[in-house]
Every structure is written in C-alpha cells, then in structure tokens.
Automatic annotation (TrEMBL):
Organism of provenance: Mariniflexile aquimaris
Domain of life: Bacteria
Stretches assigned to the THUMP domain: 46-157
InterPro entries: DNA_methylase_N6_adenine_CS, RlmKL-like_Mtase, RlmKL-like_Mtase_CS, RlmL_1st, SAM-dependent_MTases_sf, THUMP_dom
Name this polypeptide is given: Class I SAM-dependent RNA methyltransferase
C-alpha cells in the first residue's frame, strides 16, 4: 500500500468550496479549505488522479519540509541541509518559484534564486556535480512559500498551471482561463440536464469546459506532461490505471451545447479548439450576433458567458450592457443567464435585477458573477425581483 501524505491544491479566489467538493468526490481525505487553496491527504495514485481530474485546481503541491527562519542566512542553511538527493539527480535540472507574505523578505525572485543556490551548492559540495536550471521542463520544480517566519518547501507535481488543458491551439484577444470557465459553470449549478449556451463564445473555452462537465470527462487528459512524470518515483503503470478508472466514469449527454460569436475569426478558433478537444459531437458553434438572436424552442436554457469588459476591447459599455438586458428580456424566456464582469458600473445598464451576485476575480480584476432568471411566457420579461 502506498502511504498517504499531505498535499495542497491551489485555486482562484472564490473557488475554494468548489475545489474542496471536487476533492471529496474524488476520494481525498482530511479536506480543509484555505484562501485560494485546499489542503488534503492522499497517496501517490491520488496525486495523479487530482492532477488529471480536478477542474478548479491550478496546481497540486506536495509539501516535503517546513521550518522557521529569522534571516536570509538561516533560510540558506536550512535549505542546504535538506536531502535534495532524494528528489533529483546531481545531473538533473531544477526550477524554483516562491510566494512570500513576510516582512523578513520582500523579493520572491531573490528568494527563488537563494533557494536554487542552496540546492546547487549542496550537490556541488557533496558530489562535485550540480543540477542546472531549466525553467521550461525541469526534472524537479520546487515551490517555496514563506508566511512571516514560517517556510514551507513543496514539490510542484503539476508543472505548468493546470488551466493549460492541452486542447486550446487558437485563442482570441481576451481568452478566458480554463479553470475560471469551469468554476463559473460549476458555480452556476449547471448539471448537464438542459441545453447550454455561451452567446459570446470567443475561442470556445466555456463550451468545451461545459461539455467535459456534462460528460464527466477528466479535464486534463490531453495535457502533454505533468511534472511528476520526471520524478524519481514516477509509476507509469499506476498512472495508466488511474487514467482508465477516471475514463470509466464518463457519461452520456442528451442535450445541446451552443456557442455564438459575431467575429468570424473567433468562430473559426472555437471550432478548431472544439475539434482538438474531440467534443464536436456535443458542441455547435455559429457565426451570430447575440443581440439579433432568439431562443429556439421552449426548453429550459442555461447560459454562461464572459462579455467584454472594455479592458482590452473598445466598445460602448453602456449600450452594450443595455443590449444584453434587452436581448435576454425580449428573446430568451425560460433561461437562467449567468455572466461574469469586472466592469461593475456597466452592470447598472443591464436593466434587470440579478437574483444572485458572487464576488470573484478574473486575473487581477475584481469581478462579479451575476445571475438573471428570465421566466417563460412573458415577452415583457418578468424577472427575479
């Protein structure tokens, strides 16, 4: 039996409960939420499963050592005396990143450099050889977290951020992060039991994440590599077994996922990404201006989208958001419409009162995920008071 160990899954602000829930459903133990993170325990197979199967995680870290420090030399000495030979060969490659919340140290790049020096010096002094730095594909990626005087050293089991799923070959001017897209869809409560629409779909991220949620497809199956594949204890047979067990849990989906965009270039990119994700059986992308469309049929529709904020796209915000409200009210009865925006002033121009508002961040921008319930059978647009 593999031994259980502590791990930490990093996420976006506002997604901690979603991630804790995902971890519990996957079979994690001792699940505890933090800020932008969730700690848990599991064995090596579970670490593989977490990287493959979590939709709202950005990274899975494996803490290996923690200690207190009083100054820079203290930090160097304690790093130097760790047993690095357990984790990487003297001829291997390393990369270090650091996050710091401390008055003792202020520069995370400097701390990353100091950590690298300690590791390299230790190998050079004990073996005469030293690992090189490789920022792109290191054999070992080390994470240093300093909170006041407390230092935690972790191995980064993911490598590249887990939002890089591997299906997105083409992006548009303001693409939405895949983890953010998956989290928004999950927060909206969509369960794959209705049709789904993204009326401003850009390069198709929301559509693809929705299809993977509906079919219970593990989000990171298409990734080229995880960092743990370069570790000394990499077990390819165990990894394949975990992959197979996750694939057995996929399910059928009997509704439609529809994407519109008024830019032909965005539509072409979305179609290409959907094809890369091998989800073209479930997703239809059309060249349409949402403001000139109407809901087809009288079935319930679930809508989640990421309208432009005016951060990178030059549009008349007041008019644009008024048009969103008018189109929902007049043309989309029987629809639960959710969208995220960091233009909090623009929300006033929608002309509908949201039934929910959730506080989030999109990158570094403070944002709101809002819900508008458009009732069936009223062109005048009764909406949730």
């Amino acid at each position: 039996m593999e031994e259980n160990f502590n791990m930490l899954a990093k996420t976006l602000f506002g997604f901690e409960e979603l991630l804790a829930n995902e971890l519990t459903q996957l079979g994690a133990q001792d699940v505890k939420t933090g800020v932008r993170s969730v700690s848990f325990t599991g064995d090596k197979g579970f670490m593989y499963k977490a990287n493959l199967g979590l939709r709202t995680a950005i990274k899975i870290l494996k803490p290996i050592h923690s200690f207190t420090v009083n100054n820079e030399q203290d930090l160097y000495n304690k790093l130097y005396h760790m047993s690095w030979e357990q984790y990487v060969k003297p001829t291997g490659t390393i990369a270090v990143d650091a996050t710091i919340h401390s008055e003792l140290f202020t520069n995370s790049l400097y701390i990353a450099q100091k950590t690298k020096d300690a590791i390299v010096d230790k190998f050079r002094d004990t073996t005469g050889e030293r690992p090189n730095v490789d920022l792109k594909f290191p054999d070992l990626k080390v994470n240093v977290h300093i909170d006041r005087h407390q230092v935690t050293i972790s191995l980064d089991s993911s490598g590249d951020s887990l939002h890089k799923r591997g299906y997105k070959m083409a992006t548009n001017i303001a693409p939405i992060n895949e983890v953010l897209a998956a989290g928004l869809i999950m927060l909206s409560g969509w369960d794959g039991q209705t049709d789904f629409m993204d009326p401003m779909c850009g390069s198709g991220t929301m559509l693809i994440e929705a299809a993977m949620i509906a079919c219970n497809i593990p989000p990171n199956l298409m990734r080229k590599e995880f960092a743990f594949e370069r570790w000394n204890d990499w077990d390819v047979d165990l990894f394949e077994k975990i992959e197979e067990s996750l694939l057995k849990k996929t399910r059928d989906f009997h509704h439609k996922i529809i994407g519109y965009d008024k830019a032909p270039s965005a539509v072409a990119k979305a179609i290409e990404n959907v094809k890369n994700a091998q989800l073209d059986d479930f997703i239809e992308v059309k060249h349409e201006d949402f403001f000139k469309t109407q809901k087809g049929g009288d079935q319930k529709l679930h809508m989640v989208f990421n309208p432009p904020y005016g951060e990178r796209l030059d549009i008349d915000m007041e008019n644009f958001y008024k048009n969103i409200g008018d189109t929902l009210k007049q043309s989309y009865p029987g629809t639960d419409a959710w969208f995220i925006t960091s233009n909090l002033d623009a929300l006033k121009h929608v002309g509908l009162r949201p039934s929910r508002k959730i506080h989030l961040f999109n990158a570094k921008l403070e944002a709101r995920l809002v819900k508008y319930v458009m009732y069936e059978g009223s062109k005048k647009g009764k909406y949730m008071k």
